[in-house]
Design a protein that fits this description.
The chain is mainly beta. It has 3 helices and 24 strands. A hairpin with a 5-residue loop joins strand 8 and strand 9. The longest helix is centred in the N-terminal third of the chain and has 7 residues. The chain is globular and about 55 Å long. The relative contact order is 0.15.
């Protein structure tokens, strides 16, 4: 069987799903791996669908500074890629490719993920629960004069995905960017504990505020969402608890938020991250800075780094 490289126009006219099963231009394509696999080049905003997940690069921005304290090196700029992925299966799905995604320029130079992040940083855990959408940012740093930028995702070792490589032309955007709708199957109410690998987590209550101590004020159109988190270590060893690895706020679109550290530090009863000893319970508030117009809010706890099969849970706020 011969696979063909599809242009963006061919991809859009046939539909992404047909790249994995059915016929395209008279050539039969299936999700089975072959010696020659299908590469695909598309634009920002185009949707890619596989048998178990869909994803789209929704936006690309360039900036010299992510925060007042995070600036690109002289002569460089940050490239912030807003990704969204949805689990369309009825089981947990790992959606990222088998090799680390990278940016390339027209001269063949490759640039890899930086440690710099935005407040909407894509979670480190790329497993998605059924119906879940994960939307967030990944950050790369490239020379300011780098041209012809593309974003490459390699699925060579993913047996269920017929595409070998997806390349997104970062300098081309479709007129209508594809959106993904989140439909979480399991959301816990406040006060309901969830235990995984003997680490028990409960979101007991939540409040909102526009002003906090130390002169911390939400920007216009935003507010602070302050859930109270309780974690108990029922294991026989101490465990690490991290705001970046384990805790996110998520809105109805799947967009994720990391904790606002300035607001969090101003709280008199802020949750203290770090090591949780055997039998110890830690309780306190977190602070997230989020737009007021969000229709639904969920707190997400992820057991990603706690030897718990990458499980996570959501509480409705």
């Amino acid at each position: 069987m011969t696979f063909h490289q599809f242009t963006r126009r061919q991809f859009l006219s046939t539909g992404a799903a047909s790249l994995f099963a059915g016929c395209v231009g008279g050539a039969e394509l299936t999700a089975e791996k072959t010696e020659t696999e299908t590469p695909l080049t598309i634009a920002v905003g185009d949707l890619v669908e596989t048998p178990s997940f869909s994803f789209v690069v929704r936006a690309v921005t360039k900036t010299k500074a992510l925060t007042d304290f995070t600036r690109a090196d002289r002569g460089n700029t940050f490239v912030v890629i807003r990704l969204a992925a949805k689990n369309t299966d009825d089981e947990v799905v790992h959606w990222l490719p088998s090799k680390e995604p990278y940016i390339a320029d027209s001269n063949g130079n490759e640039y890899y993920l930086t440690d710099s992040t935005t407040t909407n940083a894509l979670p480190k855990n790329h497993d998605l629960l059924p119906g879940e959408v994960s939307r967030g940012d990944v950050v790369y740093e490239v020379p300011m004069d780098a041209a012809g930028l593309t974003y490459s995702l390699d699925f060579t070792n993913r047996s269920e995905v017929a595409l070998s490589n997806v390349t997104i032309d970062l300098e081309s955007t479709v007129a209508s960017v594809t959106d993904l709708e989140q439909s979480l199957e399991t959301v816990h109410p406040l006060g309901e504990p969830v235990s995984n690998n003997d680490v028990r987590v409960t979101v007991t209550e939540v409040r909102t505020a526009t002003e906090l101590g130390d002169g911390i004020t939400a920007t216009e159109g935003h507010e602070f969402v302050l859930p109270t988190l309780e974690i108990t270590n029922d294991r026989t060893d101490s465990i690490p608890i991290s705001s970046f690895w384990n805790m996110r706020l998520k809105r109805e679109t799947g967009l994720v938020y990391t904790a606002d550290l300035w607001a969090w530090e101003s709280l008199s009863n802020g949750f203290e991250v770090g090591s949780l000893d055997v039998g110890e319970t830690e309780r306190g508030e977190l602070a997230f800075h989020i737009s007021i117009d969000s229709k639904a809010r969920y707190f997400m706890f992820d057991w990603y780094n706690l030897d718990a099969d990458y499980a996570k849970a959501f509480w409705a706020l």
